[in-house]
Amino acid sequence: MNNIVFVNIMRFFGLLALQVLICSNINFMGYINPNIYLLFILIYPALNNRLLFIFSSFLLGVIIDAFLDSGGTHAAASVLIAYIRPLFLKFSFGAAYDYQSLKFSNSNFTQRYIYFLSLILIHHLVLFSLVVFNQDKMLLIIKQTFYTSVFTFLLCLLIYSLFSSKKV
Amino acid sequence: MQQLFNFFIKNKTLVLFLVLFTIAISLTIKSHEFHRTKLFNSSNYIIGGVYGISHSVSQYFHLLKENELLLEENSKLKTQLFNHAKHSTAEPSLNQPYSLNSALVYNNSYSLTNNYITLNKGLEDGIKEDYGVITSKGIVGVIDRTTSKYSRVLSILNSKSKINVKLNKTNHFGTLSWDSKSSGIVQLNDIQDLVKFTIGDSITTSGFSSIFPANIPVGTINSYRLNDTKDLYIIDVKLFNDMTNLEHVYVVKNTDFKELENLNQSDE
Predict the structure, then answer these.
(1) What region, left, alpha or beta, does residue B171 occupy, with left being phi > 0 and alpha being psi -120 to 50 degrees?
(2) H runs (alpha helix) in chain A
(3) How far apart are alpha carbons B105 and B89 in whole angstroms?
(4) Is A61 within 8 Å of chain B by CB?
C-alpha cells in the first residue's frame, strides 16, 4: 500500500516537472504542446479514495496553471475528468471494473486506447474552450483540441509503455 | 439541519467536485477580465525559482546566437557614438527621463492566446508595474506584475495587450493589438482610410504614453485591409523582434513616471 502511495507521489512531481520544463516548450508546428501530466489522472489506481483523487487532480492543474499563467483552465479541465473518470472506466473496461479487479498493466490494448483517447479529448475540449473563451472561435477550439489531443495521446501511450512494469 | 448534513455526507464527492470546479472557473474568468491576478502566476517566488534553475541550464544552448545579437547591437551603438562625437557641441544636453535596466528572460511563451514572459528582476531592482520592456530590435511588452525578485511581462503577443504606435512616415497613430494567430505578426488598428502608406513602411512607438519613449522600432507593414465599416484600416505588422527567441531584454524606467501618474490621477 505504501508503495502505491509513494509511486503516485513521485508520478505527480515527475510529470509536473516534465510538463512545465519540457513539454510546454515544444511548440510543435507553432502551437501544439502535449499535456502529458494527464497520465497521472489516467493511470491513478482504479480503487481509490475519490475525494483525495479529485483534490490531487485539482492541485496538479492549479500548479500547472501557475507555471503557464493560464488562470484556472488546466485545473478546471483536470477536476472535470477526475470526476467523470469512473463512468469511462466502466464504459471501456466493463466487467473488470465492476468486479474491482482492474489493473491497467494487464488490460486489453483496445480498451486502454479507447479509455485514454476519450478522456484526453474531453480534457482538451474543456481546456481550449476556457483558454480561448470566445464562442466565435469554435473552429480554433476544435482545431487545437484535435491536434493537441492526438499528440498527447501518442506521448502518453509511449511514456506509459516505456515505464510500465510487466510483473504487476 | 441533520438532513442537510446527511445530504452533504452522501454526496461529498459531488460537492467537492463542484467546489473545486467553481474555484477553477472563477480563476479563469478573473484572469480573462482582470489581468492582475493576485494568487497564482509565474512571478511567484517558488515558480520563479524553478524557472531560474531551468534557465541556468537552457541558456547555454543560446550563447552563440546571443553573442551575435550583442555584437550587432554594439556595432550599432558604436556607429551612433562616432557620428555623435562630431556634432556633440551643437546639441544641447537634455536631462533624460528614461533609464534602462537589463534583465534576463526566465520563461517565454508565444504559442498561447494570452502570452506572458517571466523576467529575473523585481521590486528589489526598482522594477514596477507598467514599465515597458524592449530589446535592441524592438518592443516586447509591458510589466504587469512584480514580486520582490521576479516580474511578469504582458507580452505584445497577448489579446489583452494594447500599445500606442504610429506610422513613422506620416505620424498617424493607432493601437497595436494581437489576433492570436501568428507569433510574428501583430495588428495595427484605428488608422483612417485617408492615410497613405505602402507595404514595408516602418512602425514605431508614439511616445504618447509614459510607458515607452517615442521612436522605438516595432515592425514593418506586411499587408493591410479595411475593417467591416470600411472607414479604418487593419494593418498587419511584421515585428522586428523574433518573439520566439528572447534572452536579454531591457526594462524602460521612466523617471517622471510618478509625476505623470499623479497628473492623470488628479484628472479622474
Answers:
(1) left
(2) 2-21, 38-42, 50-68, 73-93, 95-98, 109-132, 138-163
(3) 39
(4) yes
Name the H helices within chain B.
Answer: 2-10, 12-33, 45-58, 63-87, 257-267
Instruction: Give buried/exposed letters for B178-196 (b at 16+ CB in 10 A, else e).
Output: bebebbbbbbbebbeeeee
Whether B42 and A20 lie within 8 Å, measured CB to CB: no
Interface pTM (ipTM) of the complex? 0.81
* Cβ distance of B27 and A65 shorter than 8 Å: yes
pTM of the predicted model, to two decimals?
A: 0.74
Q: Which is nearest to B68 in space by CA: B136, B140, B138?
A: B136
Which of these, B13, B50, B27, lies nearest to A76 by C-alpha position? Answer: B27
- Whether the per-residue pLDDT at B37 is higher than 80: the answer is no
Residue of A69, A83, A147 for testing the chain B interface, max B β-carbons within 10 Å: A69
The answer for A 89-148 residues in CB contact with B (under 8 A) is 130-133
Say how far apart CA B112 and CA B180 lie, in whole Å.
Answer: 8
Higher pLDDT, A30 or B239: B239
Listed in sequence order, the residues at least 6 apart from B153 whose beta carbon sits closer than 8 Å to its beta carbon are B116, B117, B118, B119, B133, B140, B141, B142, B143, B144
| pLDDT(A142) > 60 | yes
- Interchain proximity B28–A133, CB inside 8 Å: yes
**DSSP secondary structure letters along B225-240:** EE-TTSSEEEEEEEES
Instruction: Point out the least confidently predicted range of A157-161, B86-90, B186-190.
Output: B86-90
